[in-house]
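Duplicate of #3305? Posting structure anyway:
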């Protein structure tokens, strides 16, 4: 029994660390937008109905990390070597459910609604998501053709390999999938809406860019988290200037953003994206903000996140009203930022 208790204590600590990484959503620009919607509705005495679609979107995406098996934190080879009886392993399996956030949420649903079927439906949805995720991972391990990220094409030029690697990194975060759901909704509105409002596509494009913008604050975040400080060492070995390394990150970001904006109105969203990068270079170069895969990107709400959201939305609306001149101005500001922070990156790397 003492062995099972010791394992459960270690499992509790591991789950605590894992849930701590989910708090990155608190410093995500999309979460800031939803929080402002709720705050504005409550101040006006109205229920925050305008934020409900975003709560559903964020809740659905968060189910993927939340529904993970707690025992999955223990490597299978190590778990198989532990001298546990069949009864102990079965007890460990049931006891580990107490550490699953899905169990806590299901209990909360049951207490709040007194509807067992609603709690069971939530558990069934979480279980289906987990089964799909596990099957996808196993298929990708057995047959690389199931790994969709390997189909990202090789970009031409000297930076092509870096751009491809950076696109794979971006697509291992939750932010582009939140943006994808918004883009799909906008595309469906364009196709199936009886009389779609042209202005709606510019607004939805800005929301897509907002969902992606936090990543612009942490372009090296995944490398800081996985390489334990060796990211700068690897980059110093490349025969590339600082602005080229940043440019490879930015091309990957802007390419994904452009693809997501194609069903909508791309120009306002791209203007937002360029502004987000111009401001985000500061945090990316001067701060170390490690990120975890399959989590929302965490940045700094003040001042960079707030400036990204405010300036990006303002410039995006201005582009919608005035046209390409605003997009050209945003591009110029981005190029100035790229040059300046490319030099700062070289100074940081040489320190």
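Output from current build:
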């Amino acid at each position: 029994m003492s062995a099972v208790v010791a394992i459960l204590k270690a499992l509790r600590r591991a789950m605590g660390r894992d849930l701590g990484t989910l708090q990155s959503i608190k410093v995500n620009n999309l979460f800031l937008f939803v929080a402002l919607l709720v705050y504005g509705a409550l101040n006006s005495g109205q229920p925050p109905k305008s934020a409900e679609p975003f709560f559903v979107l964020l809740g659905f995406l968060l189910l993927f990390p939340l529904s993970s098996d707690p025992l999955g934190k223990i490597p299978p080879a190590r778990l198989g070597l532990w001298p546990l009886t069949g009864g102990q392993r079965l007890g460990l399996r049931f006891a580990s459910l107490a550490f699953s956030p899905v169990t806590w949420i299901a209990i909360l649903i049951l207490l709040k609604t007194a509807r067992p079927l609603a709690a069971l439906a939530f558990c069934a949805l979480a279980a289906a998501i987990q089964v799909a995720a596990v099957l996808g991972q196993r298929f990708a391990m057995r047959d690389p053709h199931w790994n969709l990220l390997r189909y990202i094409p090789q970009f031409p030029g000297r930076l092509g390999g870096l751009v491809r690697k950076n696109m794979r990194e971006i697509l291992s975060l939750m932010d582009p999938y939140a943006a994808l759901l918004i883009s799909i909704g906008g595309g469906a509105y364009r196709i199936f809406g009886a009389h779609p409002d042209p202005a709606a596509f510019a607004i939805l494009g800005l929301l897509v860019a907002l969902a992606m913008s936090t990543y612009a604050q942490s372009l090296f975040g995944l490398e800081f988290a996985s390489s334990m400080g060796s990211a700068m060492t690897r980059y110093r070995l490349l025969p590339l200037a600082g602005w080229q390394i940043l440019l490879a990150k930015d091309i990957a970001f802007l390419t994904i953003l452009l693809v997501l904006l194609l069903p909508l109105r791309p120009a306002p969203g791209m203007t937002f994206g360029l502004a987000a990068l111009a401001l985000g270079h500061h945090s990316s170069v001067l701060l170390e903000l490690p990120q975890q895969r399959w989590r929302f990107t965490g940045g700094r709400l003040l001042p960079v996140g707030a400036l990204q959201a405010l300036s990006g939305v303002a410039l995006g609306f201005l582009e919608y009203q005035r046209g390409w001149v605003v997009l050209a101005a945003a591009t110029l500001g981005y190029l100035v930022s790229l040059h300046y922070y490319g030099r700062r990156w070289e100074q940081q790397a040489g320190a």
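Confirmed duplicate; merging threads. The longest helix spans residues 116-142. The chain has a mean pLDDT of 86.
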